[in-house]
Design a protein that fits this description.
It is a single chain. This protein is an all-alpha fold and about 290 residues long. The chain contains twelve helices and no strands. Helix 3 packs across helix 4. The longest helix has about 55 residues.
Length: about 290
């Protein structure tokens, strides 16, 4: 009976692992239909089952989150750049489905006397969507920090050519690609709706929550208040941002050394010890057989 339970659990984990791998690559949200258009859904196998479960639990999940947590969740989704058109409803629906599966796995294992194993699998499933969203947000912030120095260099050259700051940002954002240009475009849209430059860039800093972007926004606003020429200010900010990014890369590389040593210790050393022990046992087979 235990062997059958382990076999079923292994098969289920393989299926869920394949679905999780697909979600890491695509999130399963590419076919989210526009509100004004007809709903045309592609058959996606297990992901359709997850969406069906999430639809039935949507009301319960929304009430469980509450208005305050939903507002914070909306901010987190916006900070992650709404990957693949992710919306609050889609996220909550998928979270409800994974939570239900986590509870089902826990009950399944607990039924056969393995509550700890079920609790581990249930926790992984219930926390899958938050972990995925945080991972996407971190990758996006890292990409913005990488793009920021070059963006500021081009922006400084454009401002030196005679364009105003807003026109320069618009021109560079049109040419550049990536999350930084998207955030700059959002700031420009806010300014076109009457938001001041200061508040638009403060909102940009709040959305991205990156040290490099925070330094850029602070230096830009200070230069504007002190009357520093914008082209010179952008050049100095770009240099400072590049130095800060290089320092972060050096710190990350310094942290990789102990991690690599730990990985080698946990993988290579046990294997080497096992080979040495096996060689000793085989070499002294006659003596050991006499003892045991």
């Amino acid at each position: 009976m235990i062997g059958l339970v382990l076999a079923v659990a292994a098969a289920g984990l393989v299926v869920l692992g394949m679905a999780g791998l697909r979600m890491v690559r695509t999130t399963g949200l590419e076919d989210v239909a526009e509100i004004s258009g007809p709903v045309v859904r592609e058959r996606r196998g297990l992901l359709d089952v997850l969406d069906g479960i999430g639809d039935r639990l949507l009301g319960v999940t929304m009430r469980a989150y509450g208005p305050n947590r939903l507002r914070r969740l909306e901010e987190s989704i916006r900070r992650a750049g709404r990957p693949d058109g992710l919306t609050l409803i889609v996220y909550v629906r998928r979270q409800g489905a994974f939570t239900f599966l986590g509870v089902a796995w826990f009950a399944f294992f607990a039924l056969f006397g393995q509550p700890v194993v079920g609790l581990v699998f249930g926790a992984v499933l219930a926390g899958w969507m938050p972990m995925w969203l945080r991972s996407v947000s971190r990758r996006r912030a890292a990409q913005i920090e990488t793009e920021l120095p070059d963006f500021l260099d081009v922006l400084g050259v454009t401002v030196s050519a005679g364009l105003s700051f807003r026109q320069a940002v618009e021109r560079v954002a049109e040419v550049a690609e990536g999350p930084l240009s998207e955030e700059m475009t959002t700031a420009l849209r806010e300014m076109s709706l009457g938001v001041s430059r200061r508040h638009a860039f403060l909102s940009l800093r709040e959305r991205v929550r990156s040290e490099a972007v925070a330094s850029f926004v602070t230096a830009l606003l200070q230069a504007e208040e002190l009357g520093v020429p914008l082209a010179e200010a952008l050049e100095d900010i770009a240099a400072d941002t590049r130095r800060q990014h290089a320092e972060q890369v050096r710190q990350a590389m310094a942290k990789m050394g102990p991690k690599a040593s730990m990985a080698m210790t946990m993988t290579i050393v046990p294997g080497a010890v096992l080979l040495i022990v096996a060689a000793m046992v085989l070499g002294n087979d006659g003596i050991l057989s006499g003892i045991f």
